Amino acid sequence: MHETNLAKLDLNLLVALRALLAERHVTRAASRMGLTQPAMSHALARLRVVLGDPLLVRKRAGMTLTPRAQELAEPLERVLADVSKLLAPPERFDPARSTRTFRIASSDYVELVLMPAVLARLWREAPNVRVQLRTLGARGADEIDDEGIDVILGPPASSDADRSDVVMQKLITERFVCVVREDHPTVGKRLTLERLLALPHALISPHGDEQGGIVDTALAKLGKHRTIAVEVPHFLVAPFLVERTDVVLTLAERVARALGPSVRLRVLPPPPELRLPGFDISLVWHERHRADPAHAWFRSTIAAVAKKL
DNA sequence: TGAGGGAATCAATGATCACG
DNA sequence: CGTGATCATTGATTCCCTCA
Question: Is the pLDDT of residue A93 over 50?
Answer without folding.
Answer: yes
